[in-house]
Automatic annotation (TrEMBL):
Source species taxonomy: Bacteria, Pseudomonadati, Pseudomonadota, Alphaproteobacteria, Acetobacterales
InterPro entries for this protein: D-isomer_2-hydroxyacid_DH, D-isomer_2_OHA_DH_cat_dom, D-isomer_DH_CS, D-isomer_DH_CS1, D-isomer_DH_NAD-bd, NAD(P)-bd_dom_sf
GO CC terms of this entry: cytosol
Matches recorded under CDD domains: GDH
PANTHER family: 2-HYDROXYACID DEHYDROGENASE-RELATED, GLYOXYLATE_HYDROXYPYRUVATE REDUCTASE B
UniProt protein name: D-glycerate dehydrogenase
Ranges of residues in domain D-isomer specific 2-hydroxyacid dehydrogenase catalytic: 18-321
Length: 321
């Protein structure tokens, strides 16, 4: 008698390729919308799911982990960040947690560099001018951006994504500074200059880009003092986590002219972000879409399913956290 298919709850919408695979290989309950935490817990119990595949909308703190039914043995997170769950609490209950750390590196780095270029070159203002009809020519001193080529780029968090941003920056002749929990070996540094602390690095950064996780461990990294430490006219970019930034301090730095511009993909409250940013001409905004390409969103869903399949087959998970 053939073995029953592993029982899986997919608590978020996936791309067609990942959805089709989930249907083929698992006894899958597929969400028609991105489930809330309560919906996911109830659905996991009703389906008797052995694994649940989630995204950031399912927030599993210690209390929520405690309410998961005992038959759940795996939480497969379909992104690299997992600050929306308490992995330690899950492990204490014997539940494995996995993520998808490799598949979204390039697309996140691409978007970070798009934000760098767009913020430096006033892309929001230029595009708005064109959509308004552009009937008056610009003179030599009008609507000037800053040249990103050759600037000093500071990177906070020199993991996979930070290193991919550095690789792109080298093509623009940028000098690269970085802070990381530990210094990288020379073959990974590739000439980037290490700083043991963020405050020590900030005064040297003409452009600053964040590439580290959010959560309690890192707290608010960019507060009033941190923005003040950047040189006047600096550009700030964040594709990491909104929780790393004191947004009132960022708004003050942008409106005072201390910062030339910012490029933001993440916010403290999503999707209900602080719309004061939208009113500023020197901010280029995207709605948390760093991984939003066909290739990467396919790969995220499929990699999460790879982890489910590995556990179901009695193998070690590919991407334990």
């Amino acid at each position: 008698m053939p073995r029953a298919l592993p029982r899986l709850l997919v608590a978020r919408r996936l791309t067609p390729a990942a959805t089709d695979r989930a249907r083929r290989e698992f006894d899958a309950l597929l969400a028609e919308h991105d489930m809330s935490t309560e919906e996911a817990i109830d659905a996991a119990a009703a389906h008797r799911a052995e694994a649940i595949l989630i995204g950031p909308k399912v927030k599993l703190d210690a209390a929520a982990i405690a309410r998961l039914p005992g038959h759940v043995k795996l939480i497969a997170n379909s992104s690299v960040g997992y600050d929306h769950m308490d992995a330690e609490a899950a492990r204490a209950r014997g539940i494995l947690v996995t993520n998808t750390p490799d598949v979204l590196t390039d697309c996140t780095a691409d978007l970070a560099f798009l934000l760098i270029l767009a913020a430096c070159r006033r892309a929001h203002e230029y595009e708005a001018l064109m959509r308004a009809g552009w009937r008056k020519g610009l003179g030599l001193p009008d609507m000037l951006g800053v040249r990103p080529s050759g600037k000093v780029l500071g990177i906070v968090g020199m993991g996979r994504i930070g290193r991919a941003v550095a690789q792109r920056a080298r093509g623009f002749g940028m000098r690269i500074l970085y802070h990381n929990r530990s210094r990288l070996p020379p073959d990974l540094e590739q000439g980037a200059e290490y700083f043991a602390s963020v405050p020590e690095m900030l005064p040297h950064c003409q452009i600053l880009s964040l590439h580290l996780p959010g959560g309690v461990a890192n707290g608010v990294l960019m507060d009033e003092a941190a923005f003040a430490a950047l040189p006047r006219g600096a550009v700030f970019v964040n594709t990491a986590r909104g929780s790393l930034v004191d947004e009132d301090a960022l708004l003050a730095a942008l409106t005072s002219g201390h910062l030339f511009a910012a490029g933001l993909d993440v916010f403290r409250s999503e999707p209900d972000y602080d719309t004061r940013f939208a009113a500023l001409p020197n901010v280029f905004l995207t709605p948390h879409v760093a991984s939003a390409t066909l290739e990467t969103r396919d790969a995220m869903g499929l990699r999460a399913l790879d982890n489910v399949a590995a556990i179901a087959a009695g193998r070690a998970p590919l991407d334990p956290v």
